[in-house]
Amino acid sequence: MPELGVAFALALGFLALRQHRRRGRFHPRAILRALLASRRILVHRSTRADLICYGINTFAISTLIGWGVFSGNTVSALTVHCLAGLFGPRAPAALPGCALRAGITVAAFLGYELGYYLDHVMKHKIPFLWAFHKTHHSAEVLTPLTVFRVHPIDTLIFVDIVAATAGLAHGVFTYAAGRSVGIYLVDGTNVLFIACFFLLAQLQHSQFWMPLRGLPGRLVLSPAHHQLHHSLDPAHHNRNFGSFLAVWDWAFGTLAIPERRSPGLRFGVAQNQPHRLETLLVAPFKESGRFFVKKLRKKLLLLGAGGR
Questions:
Q1: Model confidence over 164-191: pLDDT tens digits?
Q2: If DSSP codes are grouped into helix, strand and coil, which group holds residue 198?
């Protein structure tokens, strides 16, 4: 995949730059150590489980997208209709078409990022949703394949939430522009998403500690930001929920800026046999079922107590 080549080139470039800054020159042994670390990770049981999830979700994700309750286009059209009903139609904006296209591209991307953030926060805060999201966090090493280590139900919920927020942002901008505006796309996908996917997505689930600090670290979630999110250390829990942008974490107080040097993180969750297929795909249904039964029993007891 070309995105893996881009990620590897970026990682090696970062290692070379870091070596040069620290020692005044680049030493090839830094590359060798990185490659040896990669080899150990590639044969880890967690990576084998990631590979199985990749095979399952390559099929499941394409199927689940068709199951989504919400369509981004439908949400956008409904938003425009409701705003026009409330405030009346708007005259077309007197701006160049390229400026409007750039604006709606940014608006839709921000809508996607907000949906990702809200979805992620809920999945960490609500036990029923965490039961399914925990599959992703059970990875004990991080590789580009870890992005596929997700439960299909987790994906289904994510698709709907993002469709709602991105569609809402698209609809608000369309109404404000007074006419339909096309997004800048590459192969049918928002060009900003494509850029971030190539530059960040593969490295966020990797062993390369590549931090952004200062203002850049408050705007963009570097690979190190996301590695903190996966950390077993309680000090890092419930931090860095965003996808590519740090702006929503910064706005809502969930941002953790990574240190310059790796703190030697450990990943995973407290779970028996976390890499078995049954644990990854079947156990979440059992756990969420137990949660609902517990809630139901509690309500029945309260109703019984109130009837006496």
A1: 999 999 999 999 999 999 999 998 899 9
A2: helix
Which tens digit of pLDDT belongs to each residue from 222-235?
999 999 999 999 99
Residue boundaries of the structural domains of the chain? 1-43, 45-307
Buried b (16+ CB within 10 A) or exposed e, 36-73: eeeeebeeeebbebbebbeebbeebbeebeeebebebe
Question: Which backbone phi and psi does 8 adopt, to 5 degrees?
Answer: -65, -40
Q: Give pTM, 2 decimals.
A: 0.90
What is the Cα 244 distance to its own chain's centre? 7
Specify the 3-state DSSP secondary structure of 264. coil
Look-up of token digits 């609902």: 292
Residue of 250, 69, 78, 100 lying closest to 162 (CA atoms): 69
**Cα distance from N-terminal residue to C-terminal residue, the chain:** 66
